[in-house]
Write a structure and sequence with these properties.
Layout lengths: L4 H12 L4 H8 L3 H12 L17 H10 L5 H5 L6 H11 L11
Helix pairs in contact: 1-3
Length: 108
């Protein structure tokens, strides 16, 4: 359950005013461990920063699509070498691009 910043600040201020942990539990329903965690984060301005991290991948999607169009018969390991990554990373990147296995239907 996520608590708002105001609720966390109110709980820490309540305890810092001299109330006991039992009173803190009755008023806010949080444990002493949660109190110390919230107090540490408030003192270190943890809640003031935005924590939105977006992972940057090694594989440029446009270059990968171009490589696949130039060499459609290449193995994943061959496609992974120029990007300095694993075959699995190339597999998932190709999957996100919507490129599927080559389908040749031979009628004999």
């Amino acid at each position: 359950m996520a608590y708002s910043k105001e609720y966390r600040l109110a709980a820490v201020q309540y305890k810092d005013e001299g109330h006991t942990f039992k009173e803190l539990w009755e008023a806010f329903k949080i444990s002493s461990t949660t109190y110390y965690d919230w107090k540490y984060k408030i003192e270190n301005a943890y809640y003031e920063e935005e924590h939105h991290f977006k992972r940057k991948g090694k594989i440029d999607k446009q270059k990968l699509a171009q490589a696949v169009s130039q060499t459609p018969d290449a193995y994943l390991r061959e496609l992974a070498e120029p990007f300095n990554c694993t075959e699995q990373a190339v597999f998932y990147a190709v999957k996100k691009l919507g490129i599927t296995y080559k389908k040749n239907f031979y009628l004999q």
